[in-house]
Predict the structure.
Amino acid sequence: MAVRAVDMGWRGGIAGGAAKGPVRRTHRMRTRHRWTRRAAARALLTLLLAVAAVAAVRSVASAAAPAGPGAVPRPAAIVRVAPGDTLWGIALQHAPADTDPRPWIFRTARLNGLHSAVIVPGQVLRLPPGSR
């Protein structure tokens, strides 16, 4: 019978009569976990941070929700793209005055799911809040 070292433990011998040969392991040894003060403090801190993160997410989500049960969200302004229009030209017309139009273009592209600045005539673009 072949004995594989992976499946069996091995009792090594010392000169003078210690038992030699494979030993079958019939069960796993379970070690008892002792909670130290440091481990308990880490567990408590992790729990508190998780609760704080959930509370922060819920407060942000409630701030983004409409104010009351009957409140209607303000509709986003929309623009239909005309032949020859570019995002830069639309930004110059609708972005807040005296500001750099690049952040407005980025928000508009993200709001409309655009992966590039290519727009086509007839396309409807939703404008970000704060547009003129």
About this structure: Helices lie at 37-64, 87-94, 101-111. Strands lie at 9-11, 21-23, 78-80, 124-126. The mean pLDDT is 78. The first helix runs from residue 37 to 64.
